[in-house]
From TrEMBL:
<dbReference type="InterPro" id="IPR012547">
    <property type="entry name" value="PDDEXK_9"/>
</dbReference>
<feature type="domain" description="AAA-ATPase-like">
    <location>
        <begin position="5"/>
        <end position="229"/>
    </location>
</feature>
<dbReference type="Pfam" id="PF08011">
    <property type="entry name" value="PDDEXK_9"/>
</dbReference>
<dbReference type="InterPro" id="IPR018631">
    <property type="entry name" value="AAA-ATPase-like_dom"/>
</dbReference>
<dbReference type="Pfam" id="PF09820">
    <property type="entry name" value="AAA-ATPase_like"/>
</dbReference>
<protein>
    <recommendedName>
        <fullName>AAA-ATPase-like domain-containing protein</fullName>
    </recommendedName>
</protein>
<dbReference type="InterPro" id="IPR027417">
    <property type="entry name" value="P-loop_NTPase"/>
</dbReference>
Length: 563
């Protein structure tokens, strides 16, 4: 079986080393046939942006045109009219994905290093007799200790002009993850300096550049035009809301089924959809996260688990959710409860609006980052509203993990007090400790109101507490057992430890009985659905059954010990 290119975004390596490759080569045709000279394509992380940009580089590169032809022999682009453009253009390809520095000076120096590395890889242009001494020196000055910021800002403009002169051909400019340094600058406090530099840097390459054949920029966000793309009238933006190249990033259901068939894996397809499907890009519904699918197929013996949410930190998202106002929190709890929420969004990101907590900007950022997806669009001629939801189980987990942190503050009753009571199977102390902890730790504005938080929020909260037991116990959320799925099951890794727990949660609704009776209903469900069956049959533990009912910050527990 062929290897999967997990963590490999070099197109040439993927093809030459015979990694499994899902053919997205008609993306090249999309770029060539587009009327736009410059195209910005924002997509969530791990959706194949860098691999596609690497493919464009290999396709257009005039220096290795003959050498790279073989890379495309088995791909769809070989039969396209666009093939005549293969190997015809000099290329400037820069990836800014690693420009994540804490100061403006360090970030700029890192960008300078990237440009110097490009010059070293293309040193033949500086040896060309077609260039004047002055033209050569402009680029060489970047390699000196006394280099100037203005020369770096003009790099794309200068390099494209010189490349075009040397090769007597227009140039392709590819900038991958352009917004990585911008997002970091906002987090680190030097946003205005970075946005000013990037405006000049990108404008030099993409604004009124007579030497440009095609320019492609990828990232996650569509940073507001007035912030960075001012004056780029020829720039076309293709976000997850547009149809252009909608199926070229992410995997279609047909592509996923073909992959599973080829590697002879046949799990329940509905479960795969539940975990990794759910994205709508343009009019293409049911798009899959490629990173997660490849990881699942590679490690399918381990079962379903979140892969995408573990690829990088979620600091920006957490900061925004921490500062969410009551109205935004209401929408977030609706998302977590599985609802489709109708919302307005800002399609462009203005970071000052993030500072102000503007709801439309925050929701737009969640959408373009892949934490939400659209289900429908409504336009009344003045405003556009989108039906938004969490796309799948994998992304739901990231919300739950963030909620574990967002809902918890300092409290006199510590987490260890709750866990100690549970481990000691002390029912009265467990209820008291959990009640006190809830009263002082929940921080969402509306948590005190009946019905304001979905059961999933409480589930995530308790699951986060129990995660501290994972060194000695196995903690399972929604495991299949008896006649259904229990909310939480905990059992020892050491078979000599006699203890185990089954927990079932209920949230008080307007039509619910009093809180204590609701907790009793949770206990009755444990018995009627025989949730203790798996533990009794396989682990022979002394069980503590716990029915828990929540109402805002109030909690009631009913417990039962089964020796």
């Amino acid at each position: 079986m062929r290897k999967f290119p997990i963590g490999i975004s070099d197109f040439k390596r993927v093809i030459q080393d015979d990694y499994y490759y899902i053919d997205k080569s008609l993306f090249i045709e999309d770029i060539i046939e587009s009327n736009a000279i410059s195209i910005l394509i924002p997509r969530p992380r791990r959706f194949g942006k860098t691999l596609n940009m690497s493919m464009l580089h290999a396709f257009f590169d005039i220096k290795k045109g003959e050498e790279n032809k073989v890379l495309f022999d088995q791909l769809k682009i070989r039969q396209s009219e666009a093939w005549k453009h293969q190997g015809k253009y000099p290329v400037i390809y820069l990836s800014l994905k690693d420009i994540k520095k804490n100061t403006f000076e360090d970030a700029i120096y890192k960008i300078k290093v990237l440009c110097v590395e490009w010059l070293e890889e293309n040193e033949e242009i500086l040896q060309s007799n077609l260039l004047t001494i002055s033209e050569k020196n402009i680029l060489k000055d970047l390699t000196k200790d006394n280099w100037k910021l203005v020369d770096l800002e003009n790099f794309l403009k200068t390099a494209s002009k010189i490349l075009s002169k040397v090769y007597n051909q227009k140039v392709v400019i590819l900038i991958d993850e352009y917004d990585s340094c911008i997002i970091k600058s906002w987090e680190a406090g030097y946003y205005q300096e970075m946005i000013s530099f990037m405006r000049g840097f990108l404008s030099g390459g993409f604004k009124d550049n007579d030497h440009l054949f095609k320019g492609v920029i990828t990232g996650i966000l569509r940073v507001a035009k007035e912030s960075i793309f001012s004056g780029l009238n020829n720039l076309v933006v293709s976000t997850v809301l547009e149809n252009q190249s909608a199926d070229k990033f992410g995997l279609t259901e047909e592509e996923v089924k073909k992959l599973l068939q080829e590697v002879n894996i046949s799990p329940a397809f509905e479960e795969i959809k539940k975990w990794y499907n759910g994205y709508k890009i343009g009019q293409h519904t049911g798009m899959y996260n490629p990173w997660s699918i490849l990881n699942f197929v590679d490690k399918h013996d381990e079962g379903f688990k979140p892969y995408w949410v573990n690829t990088s930190a979620n600091e920006l998202i957490e900061v925004l959710l921490t500062n969410a106002n009551a109205d935004l929190e209401k929408k977030l709890t609706g998302f977590i409860d599985g609802q489709v929420m109708e919302c307005e969004i800002d399609e462009t990101t203005i970071f000052q609006d993030l500072d102000n907590g503007k709801q439309e900007t925050v929701l737009g950022l969640l959408l373009f980052n892949g934490y939400l997806t659209t289900t429908y669009t409504k336009n009344d001629g003045r405003k556009t509203h989108y039906g938004l939801k969490i796309p799948n189980e994998e992304v739901m987990i990231v919300y739950e993990k963030m909620l574990e942190r967002l809902l918890s503050k300092s409290t006199e009753v510590s987490e260890s007090t709750i866990l100690s009571a549970l481990l000691d199977q002390d029912a009265k102390e467990f209820e008291y400790a959990l009640s006190e902890y809830m009263l002082t730790s929940f921080s969402f504005h509306d948590v005190q109101h009946r019905g304001s938080l979905p059961e999933k929020v409480y589930h995530a909260f308790i699951l986060g507490l129990m995660a501290h037991l994972s060194t000695r116990f196995i903690v399972k959320s929604n495991p299949e057992t008896g006649l259904g799925r229990a909310d939480l099951m905990i059992y020892p890794k050491d078979n000599n430890d006699p203890r185990g727990w089954v927990l079932e949660f209920k949230k008080l609704k307007r039509s619910s009985p009093p809180l204590k009776e609701l907790a009793q209903e949770a206990m009755q469900q444990i018995h009627s659905s025989k949730y203790m069956t798996t533990l009794k049959e396989n682990y022979k533990t002394d069980l503590m059954l716990v029915g828990v009912a929540f109402d805002g910050k109030e909690v009631s527990c009913v417990t039962e010990l089964i020796p």
